[in-house]
Amino acid sequence: MMTDIEIAQSTQMLPIAAVADKLGVNEEQMELYGRYKAKLDITAMRDMPRKGKLILVTAINPTPAGEGKTTTSVGLADALSKLGKKACLALREPSLGPVFGIKGGAAGGGWAQVVPMEDINLHFTGDFHAIGAANNLLAAMLDNHIQQGNELGIDVKRITWKRCVDMNDRQLRNIINGLGGRMQGVPREDGFDITVASEIMAVLCLASDLMDLKERLGRMVVGYTFEDKPVLARDLKAEGAMAALLKDAIKPNLVQTLEHTPALVHGGPFANIAHGCNSVSATDTALKLADYVVTEAGFGADLGAEKFLDIKCRAAGLTPDAVVIVATVRALKYNGGVAKADLGVENLAALEKGLPNLLKHVENITKVFGLPAVVAINRFVQDTDAELALIREKCAAYGVNVALSEVWGKGGEGGLDLGREVLRIIDEEKSNFTFSYGLEQGLKEKITAIATKIYGADAVDFSAAASKEIARLEGLGYGNLPVCMAKTQYSLSDDPTKLGAPKGFTITVNKVKVSAGAGFVVALTGEIMTMPGLPKVPSAEKIDVDANGKITGLF
């Protein structure tokens, strides 16, 4: 059996100009990055109307058994193309942290991938490097301002801006810098976030164009003065230089699937510590160029989909026409208490015990947000007819059909049933889209609404520090912003060991911070971290390159 990278390297890509032609994009509207990658000029498409139907792909909470959300997204887009529809993908770019860590890449899998997968999973077009450079330029200008006399009166103990690097490096979570004498800077505590958790990543993904990007960069809060006033990036006169570094990064990247369906792969915030969606500019561009756009939100529907709907849709004026909720029989049995080694054996009792996780996500999408949905079962050969029948029976109680997806092994052909069901619900089922909270609610009320409606919590416990910060942020005028929850992806609760659909739990908010440029307030729950670490055996140990530049070991 071929690996993902072997499959990707065995297929012949079309020149990117031929892929662009499928969307009606000419060479003057794009910038080539070699033969198989290009950036699109969104200014040339600014006045075009949106015409496409938007399909959001989300999933149950991730497990070691895997769900295949990106693979399903790619295969669905290919299936829609096979059904004669003008389809386009809109996905996130992978972070080097997971690529070299434990999760691997994010270009799909099997015969449902976006290519060139090696480029996409590694440096791609340099977007993440530009974001890291802009982030660290602001950090350097901040510390230089303090070194040069601190005219703004910045309290070095209340600096909130961190440096970043796109790597899992726990050693950099907490550091002391500025050592070595008076001319080496002001000694202070500092730390690094992973680039995908940087506010600049969120800003780039939520900005509509370059000028909106620059304005958002300027209003980012980097710290506070001794008089308790927020210090903004524009106070340091940093937004112009940062925007200059990002002028190309904001342009969506055009690539293709193995079956040559166009794919806009752009931006990559994590969904457990950021808002977890690809860029507004890519989604907007895809909706202008294609009739059906398949996009994906990170991790489970409690994280990525909630943020897609409550944050991104608000910011960009989007309304999904259909939602696909991906699950596997294996993952549901894992939620029901089956060990990973035993997941290939039929176990209806464990499946029924694990099904509430899927059903809670179905309920959230259809009842809380009012959107038509289909459950996509990413099928494994060990799945039995009895197991699949049980899932269909339970989902039918919510008025949601189940479609089997076999795109990993068959590409678009294996997603035709799913594609037909998606087209059916778009044509036949009415969307009553609504948000899970109102912007007029206070920050505590918004957090509580997400925790109780989406997670199923009984209540929220706010630490004294979080309560104090919420009161201060509301006093500064940030209370009308949406909320971005930072929470473990492995559970509907903030405890990663609570699988299924736990009951009788409380969400603990330990810390709150404002991302004023992105336009939301972040609530950190449980023991969530903004800089991951590498596992005992990182994936980087398996990645190699030969004398001809051929890469192996990526997955």
Task: Please explain how this structure is put together.
The protein has 555 residues and is an alpha/beta fold. It contains 18 helices and 25 strands. Strands 1, 2, 3, 4, 5, 6, 14, 15, 16, 17, 18 and 19 form a twelve-stranded mixed sheet that branches. A four-stranded mixed sheet has the order 20-22-23-21. The longest helix has 21 residues, at 127-147. The mean pLDDT is 95.
Number of DSSP helical runs:
18
- Averaged pLDDT: 95
Distance between the termini: 14 Å
Shape, per Cα inertia axes: globular
Cα-based radius of gyration, to the nearest Å: 23 Å
Structural class of the secondary elements?
alpha/beta
Question: Approximately what portion of the residues adopt beta-strand conformation?
Answer: 15-25%
Number of beta strands:
25
Fraction of residues in helix? 25-40%
Poorly predicted sequence stretches spanning 5 or more consecutive residues: none
Largest sheet: 12 strands, mixed
Give structural attributes.
single chain; 555 residues; alpha/beta; 12-stranded mixed beta sheet; 4-stranded mixed beta sheet; 18 helices; 25 strands; globular
